[in-house]
Design goal:
By secondary structure, the protein is of the alpha+beta class. The chain has helices spanning about 1-25, 35, 75-80, 150-160, and strands at about 55-65, 70-75, 90-100, 110-125, 130-140, 145. A six-stranded antiparallel β-sheet has the order 1-2-3-4-5-6. The mean pLDDT is about 85.
C-alpha cells in the first residue's frame, strides 16, 4: 500500500513538473505589434493646421452612405458656445473624417480607418465688423487645402449646425 502511495505521489510530481516545464517552454510570448495596441491606420497627417485631436469632443457622426465616421472637436471657446446658435470671434471647430473599417478585435464593430479630411470653421471679425465664419477643407498626406467653393457654404452650415452630444 505504501509503495502505491509513493508511486502515485511520484507520478503527481512528475506530471506537475511536466506541466510547469511545458508552460515555461511552450508558451512563447509574441511581441505585440503596434497594430495590436493602436489603430495606426487612423493616424492623422503630420502637419495639422489645428490641434483637432487635442480639443474636447463636441459631437461625432457616422455617414453610412459614404462609410465614413467623423468627430467634431473645438477649442475651449467653441465648446463653451456649442449648445447655442452663436459662436463668438476666436471659436474654432474641426471636423475630422475617416473611412470606416471593421474592428479586428471586436466582431461587428466599426472603427476609423484611413484619414479622409479635416474641415475647419473659424469665427473671425469681418471687414464690416461682423462675426463671420471662415471654412477650410484639408485632405491628403501631407495635408493640402482643397476647399471647393461650390460646397464650402453648405459644409460650413452643416458643421455650425452640429449639436453637441450629451456627455455623462
Amino acid at each position: 500500500m505504501k509503495i502505491l502511495r509513493l508511486a502515485a505521489t511520484g507520478l503527481a510530481v512528475i506530471a506537475l513538473a511536466g506541466l510547469v516545464i511545458g508552460c515555461v517552454t511552450g508558451c512563447g510570448t509574441r511581441k505585440l505589434a503596434e497594430d495590436d495596441v493602436l489603430n495606426v491606420q487612423a493616424r492623422l497627417p503630420q502637419a495639422m493646421p489645428v490641434p483637432a485631436m487635442d480639443w474636447p469632443v463636441i459631437s461625432s457622426s457616422i455617414d453610412r452612405t459614404h462609410q465614413t465616421m467623423s468627430t467634431l472637436t473645438g477649442n475651449d471657446l467653441a465648446v463653451k458656445y456649442s449648445a447655442t446658435d452663436v459662436y463668438p470671434v476666436g471659436s474654432q471647430l474641426a471636423l475630422t473624417t475617416w473611412l470606416e473599417r471593421d474592428d479586428p478585435h471586436w466582431f461587428g464593430a466599426r472603427i476609423p480607418g484611413s484619414f479622409v479630411a479635416l474641415e475647419t470653421v473659424t469665427m473671425e471679425r469681418g471687414a464690416d465688423g461682423k462675426v463671420t465664419a471662415h471654412y477650410t477643407r484639408y485632405a491628403g498626406d501631407p495635408l493640402r487645402e482643397v476647399t471647393d467653393a461650390a460646397v464650402a457654404e453648405a459644409r460650413k452650415t452643416a458643421i455650425l449646425g452640429m449639436r453637441p452630444s450629451g456627455m455623462p
